[in-house]
Design a protein that fits this description.
Structural class: alpha+beta
Strand content: 25-35%
CATH architecture of the largest domain: 2-Layer Sandwich
Pfam families: AMMECR1
Order of helices and strands: HEEEHEEHEEHEE
Helix content: 25-40%
CATH class of the largest domain: Alpha Beta
Radius of gyration: 17 Å
Number of domains: 2
Distance between the termini: 32 Å
Largest sheet: 5 strands, antiparallel
Oligomer: single chain
Number of strands: 9
Protein name: AMMECR1 domain-containing protein
Length: 196
């Protein structure tokens, strides 16, 4: 994992973001108002990009995020926590899952373009286990967080899966793709939790 300072968020700020994301999920599951008070931590009020991942018993329940900073970081986390609960790829998170729900916040560092003229050039530029990757052809795009390397450690399998996620043929390399990488600092608010 990249040190949190590399993405401009100290450990205490990241822990606060993970607690905030968990509080948002809890509020939505119980029908209470979503917390949105402006934090007293300055690093959380500057524009930032984040992903919120929800897992129950090791099973993905939602993962939604933002690639580019567009709002204060704490508001981005609030937005993504709510959206992750209703990730369109799976059934919505339910209150019964709360005791086993792990909440993870990944704060993204700004991306950097990498060579993508050919598949070989692209694969050679990747740093497995370190880079999050974004590819786009201007109409479609797909991204994998650095954490995906833990499940797809072979660069060719990683790239095939990323292409498939974006709707491109898994083998080969479509013309006109551009690519960038980014790093993240990850923070967790772990289960077990008291039932709601």
């Amino acid at each position: 994992m990249i040190p949190s300072e590399a993405v401009g968020v100290e450990q205490a700020d990241g822990a606060a973001l993970a607690r905030l994301a968990a509080a948002v999920v809890r509020a939505r599951l119980t029908g209470r108002p979503v917390p949105d008070d402006v934090p007293d931590r300055a690093a959380l009020t500057v524009p930032g990009a984040s992903f919120v991942t929800l897992e129950a018993g090791g099973r993905l329940r939602g993962c939604i995020g933002t690639i580019e900073a567009a709002r204060p970081l704490y508001l981005d986390v609030i937005r993504n926590a709510q959206r992750a609960m209703r990730d369109p790829r799976m059934a919505p998170v339910e209150a019964a899952e709360w005791p086993a729900l792990d909440v993870k916040v990944a704060v993204l560092a700004p991306g950097r373009a990498i060579p993508a003229g050919t598949r070989a050039e692209f694969v050679a530029a990747l740093r497995p286990g370190v880079d999050g990757v974004l590819i786009t052809d201007g109409e479609r795009r797909a991204t994998f967080l650095p954490a995906v390397w833990a499940k797809l450690s072979d660069p060719d399998v990683f790239v095939d899966s990323l292409l498939a996620k974006g709707g491109w043929p898994a083998a080969g390399w479509p013309p006109g793709l551009t690519a960038s990488t980014y790093t993240t600092a990850e923070y967790r608010d772990r289960s077990p939790r008291q039932p709601l």
